[in-house]
Fold this sequence. Notes:
Shape of chain A: globular
CATH superfamily of chain A: Amidase signature (AS) domain
Strand content of chain C: 5-15%
Low-confidence stretches of chain A: none
Radius of gyration of chain A: 21 Å
Distance between the termini of chain A: 16 Å
Distance between the termini of chain C: 32 Å
Mean pLDDT of chain C: 91
Order of helices and strands of chain C: HHHEHEE
Largest sheet of chain A: 11 strands, mixed
Helix content of chain C: 25-40%
Strand order of the largest sheet of chain A: 1-3-2-6-8-7-12-13-11-9-10
Low-confidence stretches of chain C: none
CATH class of chain A: Alpha Beta
Number of domains of chain A: 1
Largest sheet of chain C: 2 strands, antiparallel
Number of helices of chain A: 15
Radius of gyration of chain C: 23 Å
Oligomer: heterotrimer
Strand content of chain A: 5-15%
Mean pLDDT of chain A: 94
Number of strands of chain A: 13
Amino acid sequence: MMTVEKVLFRSVAEHAAALAAGEYTAVRLTRAYLERIQERNGEINAYLYVDGAGALAAAEESDVRRLRGECRGVLDGIPYALKDNFAAKGLPMTCGSKILGGYVSPYDATVVARLKASGAILLGKNNMDEFAMGSSGEYSAYGVTKNPYDRTRVVGGSSSGSAATVADGMAAFALGSDTGGSVRQPAAFCGVYGLKPTYGVLSRYGLASMASSLDCVGILARTAEDCGLLLDVLAGQDAHDATSVVYAPKSVQALDHVLRLGVISFDGVGGIDEEIKAASARAVERLTACGAVAETVELPLPDEALAAYTVLSSTEAASNLARYDGVRYGRRSARSETLSALYENSRGEGLGAEVKRRILFGTDMLVRGNREVYYLRALRVREAVRRQMEALSERYDVLISPAAPTAAFGLGSTPSPDALYCADMCTVYANLAGVPALSVPFGVNAAGLPLAVQLTARRCGENLLLAAARLLCDGEVK
Amino acid sequence: MRSDYEAVIGLEVHAELKTATKIFCACPTSFGAPPNTHCCPVCLGLPGTLPVLNRRAVELAVIAGLALDCEIAALSRTDRKQYFYPDLPKGYQISQAETSICRNGHLTVTAEDGAARCVGIERIHIEEDAGKLVHEGNETLVDCNRCGVPLIEIVSRPDLRGGAEATAYLKALREILLACGVSDCRMQEGSLRCDVNISVRRSGEETFGVRTEIKNINSFAFVEKAIAYETARQIGVIENGGAVVAETRRYDEARGETVRMRVKETAEDYRYLAEPDMLPIRLTDSDIARLRAQIPELPSARAERLEREYGMTAENARILVSELGMADYFEAGAKRTQYPKLLVNLLLSELLRHCEADPFVSPIRSEALAELADLLGERTVNSATGKKLLSRMLTEDISPRKVAYDEGLTQITDAETIGAWVDATLTELPRAVEDYRSGKSAAIKSLQGRVMAMSRGRADPIICEQLLLEKLKSGDKTI
Amino acid sequence: MEYTVERVRELAAMARISLADAEAEALCCELNAMRAIAETLRDASDLPDPFLGAVGLGEMRDDSPHVGLLRTDVLALSPAVAKDATVVPRAVEG
């Protein structure tokens, strides 16, 4: 007889089978998750808002549908959580920032609407680094999110609450956002799967933009199969998002040829822990034992790529955050005697230090004189990177690399510049090139902290990622 | 203006496009709705929203470009023009900076003084409108209805040299945009706006002087006045040994002056960002051909044709094309009458003041007016009767021919009948006869009047006059 | 080129963000670090045109008010309301 706690850690596929078999109802399951949240959230701070009433009402409807034989599919009755930069109608949406304190979204994001239509149960909104800027979970205006494995350690970011939610059994899956690793890195720190799909495959309508050309809706789940399942339901062009693309979702497939594996070399790059290197090597061994053929590859234009990422993400973010000014919605400063004061104080008081830093840099990179030198060149470098990644993906089905250079680090500790550089190197390429990447849990270290590897494929090659993840097959969250 | 100086003028015209929905969202664009009722998450810039381009806005921009002889870009992009102002929800305006849908066009205009000018059109691009601000005391009220309404901005080269030309350019531009269905072009509703860029230099010089920008000019008449004032002002500054300051000024209608708004020491840096939420716009040759076919006969070409085909004056032809619907109305009527010249006169001299303007709407059907023109041309009725009939036609949907016959209003041209009335008149008004014969030729008027009265207005006035003159000359008093 | 407190305050003014003195000073270092990363771009050469894709007329949105319209209660969201509008302190014409 499975304990309630064990049930909470089941995958979406397992829940779907259980619901279909009548092992439990959606209401029972939802209540169990709500109780878990109540029990755990005080310590972990993964949720900023829990919609218990709404969730139970939706769960009741799901059960009624099932009794009538009108089950809507595999997600019907499955409870999930949303990073707080997603618009869910009638629910608060803070993006982890004070400036949106009190703001309630009057509309649903497209992915949220699709989940609603599929029958999934929204439990609440997850804490996050403010406006998706940050990679530890320490940059929210609403408190730190802690790593469920070790509460003295960071959970990663910016999808901190979403990763902790899935890792700690507070929902069956969660949606996050990934601009430069914000789904994959916290997934790695928390021992869950984190998928950043191909840019445009999941509609961004309703996801508060940080860097529009880099942002992706991401999936955090307990198995690779769940990632594929969710992708199937959510993918597809959206009339509300002009950058969304047509995608014929494919579930996990067997490869029809020998897997060609590109092993990204980080030789000569400081900052990667030995245990991470060892885990990566073991992963490569596992795949070659399954018949894959591995070769070492170099990441193209490393310094330029990071420079381009820094410039593009900050210029777009500065622009996307200009609307948060206390004029039409959100929090307006009490010190608003003049229009200038209204703007400057609402933003000065409402935005955190990390956000200010990136906005100011992004502002500077577009001023006359700088625009030609930095911004326009960054656009071109990005295209060069994209082309080279495309060339790589023609020779290799999957690229493998660390998802993060270390396991979860201590709260309040600042990673070394080397480690920060390395962390970006691991993850930003997938965003620059618009290709899909998956963080795959792969064992734990001596301290019991999760380790992970990252798989990257070509555009719309999600099925290759999921197939390779299957082969790795180690790292299912207990 | 002093002849040793010349003014150098370029105009930036913004026209709201005649689409049903806004440029990036499905909100309605209709004017005059209660504040903040035509708004959705996208045009309000709520977190998470994205712009989706309206096809018709792009098509209308292309049509405007083709009508103004522009090249259409196969590929153009949108950019974010970034600044903070309460009427701009996103903190940036989506516009086109480095590229534009149209460029290198031209419009030839003739000013009132006869001077012809070929004005180059630098570019036409699409962009979104901002909201409306109402200032009350020390507060400003923000109405977001207009946020996201599609605009084209038409930027001319600095080829204009005076206020009259500038006004002619604006009128011609307005006519073209109206005829093509691109915009309603109502300055009073804000669907047509004009900013003036103006500098002066000594005649013959080739370098440009420092220019100022004049904004918020609300009518064509004020454009001319503002240009006149600013030209004189700049010349005055230079003549007094000063230098013109590059600045933005606004036109103060009450004082008839331009007034400084803000100084452009460093021109504002809009920190343009290539719009990442939308893809560039691709236009193919077949797109352009299909849109070109949607362009109707343009006003100047139509005016020339009307002049030629119907033998009307150039001035009348220009009036007919100056308002949407008028030329169509005329031509519909002209098909059904043998007397198109009379039709034009009826329309412009008698009917026009009773019609609605912008667009032109007549209370009388074109076929009915054509019938009236025929009646007059045939001389079935005289002009006095014609006026009476027209009067009635304003409120009743009658056939003037039927009424003329039914009610016995037709003109009497029979010389015997009229002769009898003439005889009677000469008998009844001996004093007038005496006056006329003694040299007061004006006395014939009262004699005519009496004949017309006897005929109850139906006598042909020409025959009446003829017979009167004959009989007065002959001195024959038939009693 | 190093960021000075003056420059930081100029940028903050452009971005409409008020800064305490300590914040402005701390930002100098932080922005310098970011600039150091971006500097590689200065020497980058031989780069392709940015690939942005394109959309044709056929793929754009229909001009129909019934497709995707979602009216929003503006006043319910506004921090300050008067006469059916959002209220701000008087805007200087600009």
